Amino acid sequence: MMLYKNRIVNDHEVAISPFDRGYYFGDGVYEVFRFYNGALFEKDAHYRRLERSAEQTRIPLPYPIADIDGNLAQLLRAEKVTEGIIYLQLTRGEAPRGHAFPKPPAESVLLAYCSEVGRPLQAIRNGIRVIVRPDIRWLRCDLKTLNLLPNVLAKQEAVELGAEEVFFHRSGIVTEASSSNVMLVKDDVLYTHPANHLILHGITRAVILKLAFRLNLSVREEPFTLDELRHADEVFITSTTAEVTPVIELDGVPVADGKPGPVSRRLQGAFEEYVGSLNK
Ligand code: PMP
Asked: Are 55 and 25 within 8 A, CB to CB?
C-alpha cells in the first residue's frame, strides 16, 4: 500500500509520469521516518524538516501536514507493521523538461510507503568500519533533496572496500557521513559539526544532543578536523535507521582501541530508554 494523491492505495494504482521532474531532474525532497511499536518517532521534527525542505526548494506541499499525518497513520494500520521506516517523497510534478519551474505550476506529487525494517542491532553492538572521502556535494546539504548521487557513489565505494559508511570532509573539516551525522568524543567532550548549510540537520543528532545534555556531558557543536577525528577517543554516527552506531575503524585504522566506547554506550542506553518511554 502507498500514500498517493492524498489516499491510501494499492501499489499498482500509483502511476508516476516519466515527465515528473523528480524523475529527470531529481527535483524533489524526501523524508525517512522511523516507527517503533507502530508509532512514528519524532514525527513533528520530521514534518518541520519536510516543510522547510519544501519551502526552501519552493515545492508546494499539496496537502496540510495534518492530512499527511492522518494518512501515514492509516498507512501503518493498513500495512499492519510495527517496526520499520516510512519513505516519503515530494516532487515538483509533471511538466515538459525545462529547468525553470513550469508555468502554470505543476501539481506536486507526494508519495509515501512503509517497509518493515528491524533495528541494526549487530552494528549498534559491534560498530562499523568507515572510509573518509572529500565532500563533493553542493552547499545546501541542510535540504533533504533527492540529489544523492555523491552520497550513492561514496557509499558504493565504501561497500566495495568492505566498509559500511563514508565520512565526508571539506578541506580537512569533517562535515557528516553519506547518510548519517558524525559525532566524536575527546577527553569526555562530545563534538559534532554545527547545524548549518553543510550538513543535514539530523533528527537523531538533535535527540542525541538533548540526551547528552541530560546526561551532563559537555557538548560542543563545533567543526573538527580529520586529524582530530583520527585521534578521537570515540566516534559514532547518528541517523533514523542507524540510531547510535559506533565507528570502530577509519580507513582501516582502529578508532582508539577499536571497540565501542563508554560514552557511545551511555548514549545508546539513553536513546533506547527515550524510545521506550515514548511507546508506553
Ligand atoms: N546526514 C545525511 C546526509 C543523511 O542522509 C541522514 C539520514 N537522513 C542524516 C544525516 C541523519 O538524519 P536523521 O537523523 O534525521 O535520519
From this structure: no
Distance 184 CA to ligand 1 centre (A): 16
* The dihedral formed by the CA atoms of 228, 155, 266 and 234, expressed in degrees to the nearest 10: -20
80 included as an active-site residue: no
Among 5, 103, 144, 155, the active-site one is 144
The tens digit of pLDDT for each residue in 109-148 reads 999 999 999 999 999 999 999 999 999 999 999 999 999 9
Query: Does pTM surpass 0.90?
Result: yes
Confirm if 7 and 92 have CB atoms less than 8 A apart.
no
Could you tell me if 133 and 154 are in contact, meaning their C-beta atoms sit under 8 angstroms apart?
yes
Radius of gyration of the chain from Cα atoms? 19
CA pair distance 92, 81, nearest whole angstrom? 30
- The protein residue whose alpha carbon is closest to atom 8 in ligand 1 is 179
Summarize pLDDT for 11-21 with one digit per residue, the tens: 999 999 999 99
When the candidates are 1.20.85.10, 3.30.470.10, 3.40.50.170, 3.30.460.80, the CATH number that belongs to 2-116 is 3.30.470.10
